[in-house]
Records
---
Amino acid sequence: MMFARKEKWITRHMMCLGVALLLLLSFFGVTVAHAANTADTTYMVDITTNTSKNTASRPKGNTTKVYLKCVNVTGSGSVRANGLQDGKTYSYGPKYAGSKGTKYLTNYVLESRPNQYKEAYAYLQFSNNNTLTRYHSDGVWSPDNSSGY
């Protein structure tokens, strides 16, 4: 009988300690963090003259550059990595030539996100500023990279 009473007392105090710890953590806030999002996703854009097209957005896990490998390219276009949070674009990266090859795109998706407690997303914006030809590009990309850039 005495053992059951002591066990109940310990359980009750452990629950109070758990609630106090949760309140303490919520007071200081918790930052949303993800592991690096380095998995490649395929993309394909085919853009008419003077237009742009975006890839789907993906969670940004760290402050590395966005990885892009353009495999097939025709025409002349540009690409940049932008930041998205709560459905609104808040960060526009510098424009790079949308030519064939591997690129590491500078971005400030995590550093400039409006709310550090919410997840930030990156997406690519491809543009065709040419008034005479179409721009096509396909390949793979990832919001983060493991190359140290």
---
Amino acid sequence: MPAATHAPTPAQLALQEEAAFAGDLFSKPEPTQATPALSQTFKIVGRLTRNAELRSKPSRDNLHVVPVVCLEVKNNDPTGPQICYAEKEFTDATRSQAEHFAKKFLKGHVVTVLAPVTDMRVSVSHPDSIRSHDHP
């Protein structure tokens, strides 16, 4: 008896579509059940403000240095442009792939960045207010 196949969820279809984007730096293997829902995924589509850069930085475990491709993406949101800085870590074994991507992603290219919300760091340039909740 053939194994039953299940249709992908809308979130999986959206992620597969994004991965199909030509030269997608942030493509990942086909989504699994562990993939966060699309509502938990940050997405920005925009143009690179400068050429991608290959840098080195400490690994997440701080035990060694890894190659990182750095991108700055500016979207054209109707409420005002937003800039996203993205870093894609590679391993020493995939350094040549990182070098290839850094050469391929040039200023003005349109790119899509997808990242789990849990892995985001937000920077606010001009906050309206900052209040302490520890002191009255």
---
Amino acid sequence: MHQPVTATEIFVICLLAGWLLLTILYALFNRRVAAITRRYDLFRWLSAYQLFSTTASDYRLLYRDQLTDDSMTEWTVISLTPVWKPWHLLWFPQKLVTHTIHSLADDLVTGLAKRKGTTAAAKINERFLYRALQRYVQQQPCTPGLAGRQFRIDKLTGLPGSPEYSEAFISNFHQP
């Protein structure tokens, strides 16, 4: 026999449909909607639930060391692809770190492009985005005789099958 739909079931269906609709709108109009939703979406539930989303991989992060004899090492790419283990289905905190680094790099490059030639661009090293990336890069393995470290963000300009990168941002050297 067919049972009638209860009020609770209707409420749950409406709640999930609304969540899905807001998620789609958030994904389509992310920049515009983010300014509004940051105020009310305390736990970032709207952006955390996205169907078929992947980590944006159109940036790569590199660093090099300046040694005490003023020579420099080659650029080293920082892997932002964590090694996946079966227990990561339940617990995978490292994925949050890689998402955050991608987001910081994207926000820094996008922000600089908007402020090109202004005093805000000149003071980029005072911003949280810059300092967070700098701190992450400083945690990478050190070369003996390290005097300073510099990082660079490259943007993917080629196709994913044949990647080509162009320099999007380069920092100053910083003391370890």
---
Amino acid sequence: MQRTACCLKLAAGLFVLCFSGCVAQALVGGRTVEPGDYEAAMSDPWVRPLVRSDEPFGIVASASVFAVKFVVVEPKQAEAQARLRTTPWVGVSADEAHEYLGFSPAFDPRSEKLVLLRCAQVVVHGSTQPMGRVTVEWNSGKVHVVSSAFASTYVPVQHVAIVAVLPRLPSEVFVDMATIVP
């Protein structure tokens, strides 16, 4: 049986299971991540995994990749999500960002853009709160939003809108998830 690429990375003493494409089944730390969980999460309309056939594991190692400043939208999450209903990103003005966040994010309008981005986070079963950590990376116009969490499942998924500071408007946005299986 052919499996798509997956890798294990050591990050802060933990093994992180990263997937590219659909996976058959993975066993980490004595627990099984079921293929149905991954496929259900990846079928979410907000999720668009970074899958590159020319790169092993879908991860691009380059000096042009850098972390992006971002803030999760709090007071106006529903309105922000409504703007992202049909697109993974929307450029926003400083006034719009202030409206969504309740404060003005620090950025240089001459060299940076404010962008509303999709994020998909794993939610603890029996809770409504997303868990884990979100990172946003920029690579030559491509944005990769990744939610990682200590979990043995990818579902349920919660949609979250974030405002990011980018060097320019993105050419593509990838929204992905990774689980850290304890």
